């Protein structure tokens, strides 16, 4: 009864046209804690280190299963030596996790994500292993806002809270994965990004897929940040920003994007999920300048089905929904960018995160 009352209240408020007012309540540092059934919100971070180690961390909150506002953290670290991935995960009910109203400080079990711009700490620990990182944001946040718009009852809020970030620290495998705690391994010169998001309803109702791309290596001081949400009916909401010196120089949205997917793809692991695109093409003309070019996925780092990592009782509830599969890639971008100061070619390496839903 409590769940359905919360859902009724949330839908009623939005239905009365309060979604615009709600937009001011979404903060990057603290959760919103909606009452809607199957809503989700969270913080995603991705880092690629100089030795080839890749780390993905998802911390999210949802009203799935038997309790409201259950928090779940899943961290997945892949080392370049091909050793079995280190997966650190824990879920807690609302009474057993905490946050700070005034600044970022999320705590769940022994895990913690905390700090104030531009300096953050990410710490994960359980019997499987331990990760300890200091993270420095190298650019201002880019808040994309409500997608498709603030008036929609079914929307996704998205923000690149760290469009570009550097990380360093260490990790070790725990007693569960190695019998005894392993030696500390140093993580140097990590580059990546962090996303803050909120889905007002179940994921399948607000996004069929999304694509997030942020630069990790460029010879030019200017670099692109890209975001795409594909909704039902193949409707696209697209965003692109050119950042220069950590500041957003120009940005565009609502431009057509062509997603290129090979007919025969060796990485297509399952017939019940959509293939992720292997390239993204677009051409933009506007008052802030013109951009055209391509982003190409060059190396698959990870295919991650988080539902497989859930406890049996959690899987029981989630399996009735369209469940997401995440693909993480190294990508190359090659864009031609022109504004009032002239034209230039932007090339470099990026991290790309692509989510598709199982059918």
Largest sheet: 12 strands, antiparallel
Proportion of residues in extended strands: over 45%
Number of strands: 21
Q: What oligomerization state is this entry in?
A: single chain
Short description:
This protein is mostly beta strands and 359 residues long.
Task: Please give a handful of descriptors for the protein shown.
359 residues; mainly beta; 12-stranded antiparallel sheet; 9-stranded antiparallel sheet; 4 helices; 21 strands; 56% strand; globular
How would you describe the overall organization of this protein?
The chain has about 350 residues and is mainly β. It is about 10% helix and about 55% strand. It is built from 4 helices and 21 strands. It has helices at about 1-20, 175-180, 205, 310-320, and strands spanning about 40-50, 55-60, 70-80, 85-90, 95-100, 105-110, 110-115, 120-125, 130-135, 140-145, 155-175, 185-200, 210-220, 220-230, 235-245, 245-255, 255-260, 280-285, 290-305, 325-340, 340-355. Strands 1, 2, 3, 4, 5, 6, 7, 8, 9, 10, 11 and 12 form a 12-stranded antiparallel beta sheet that branches. The protein has a 9-stranded antiparallel beta sheet with strand order 16-15-14-13-21-20-19-18-17. The longest helix is centred in the N-terminal third of the chain and has 21 residues, at about 1-20. The radius of gyration is 20 Å and the shape is globular. The model is unreliable at about 1-25 (pLDDT under 50).
How are the elements arranged and paired?
Layout: H1 2-22, E1 40-48, E2 54-62, E3 70-78, E4 86-92, E5 97-98, E6 104-108, E7 111-116, E8 119-126, E9 129-137, E10 142-147, E11 156-173, H2 175-178, E12 185-199, H3 203-206, E13 209-218, E14 222-231, E15 235-244, E16 247-253, E17 257-260, E18 279-286, E19 289-304, H4 312-318, E20 324-339, E21 342-357
Antiparallel strand pairs: 1-2, 1-12, 2-3, 3-4, 5-6, 6-7, 7-8, 8-9, 9-11, 10-11, 11-12, 13-14, 13-21, 14-15, 15-16, 17-18, 18-19, 19-20, 20-21
């Amino acid at each position: 009864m409590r769940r359905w009352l919360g859902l009724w209240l949330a839908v009623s408020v939005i239905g009365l046209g309060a979604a615009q007012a709600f937009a001011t309540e979404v903060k990057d540092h603290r959760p919103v804690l909606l009452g809607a059934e199957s809503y989700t919100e969270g913080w995603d971070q991705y880092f690629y280190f100089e030795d080839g180690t890749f780390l993905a961390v998802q911390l999210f909150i949802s009203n799935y299963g038997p309790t409201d506002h259950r928090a779940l953290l899943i961290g997945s670290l892949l080392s370049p030596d091909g050793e079995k991935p280190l997966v650190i995960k824990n879920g807690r009910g609302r009474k057993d996790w905490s946050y700070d109203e005034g600044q970022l400080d999320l705590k769940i079990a022994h895990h913690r994500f905390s700090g104030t711009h531009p300096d953050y700490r990410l710490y994960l620990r359980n019997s499987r292993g331990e990760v300890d990182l200091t993270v420095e944001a190298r650019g201002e946040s880019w808040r994309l806002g409500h997608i498709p718009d603030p008036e929609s009852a079914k929307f996704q809020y998205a923000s690149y809270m760290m469009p570009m970030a550097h990380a360093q620290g260490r990790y070790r495998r725990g007693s569960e994965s190695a019998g005894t705690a392993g030696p500390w391994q140093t993580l140097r010169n990590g580059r990546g990004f962090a996303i803050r998001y909120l889905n007002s309803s179940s994921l399948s109702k607000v996004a069929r897929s999304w694509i997030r791309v942020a630069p990790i290596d460029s010879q030019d001081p200017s670099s692109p940040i890209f975001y795409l949400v594909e909704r039902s009916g193949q409707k696209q909401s697209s965003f692109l920003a050119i950042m220069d010196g950590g500041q957003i120089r120009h940005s565009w949205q609502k431009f057509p994007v062509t997603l290129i997917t090979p007919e025969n793809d060796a990485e297509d692991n399952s017939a019940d999920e959509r293939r992720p695109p292997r390239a993204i093409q677009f051409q933009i003309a506007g008052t802030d300048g013109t951009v055209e070019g391509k982003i190409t996925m060059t190396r698959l780092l990870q295919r991650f089905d988080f539902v497989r990592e859930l406890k049996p009782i959690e899987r029981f509830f989630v399996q009735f929904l369209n469940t997401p599969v995440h693909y993480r890639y190294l990508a190359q971008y090659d864009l031609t960018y022109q504004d009032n100061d002239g034209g230039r070619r932007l090339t470099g390496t990026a991290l790309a995160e692509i989510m598709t839903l199982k059918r």
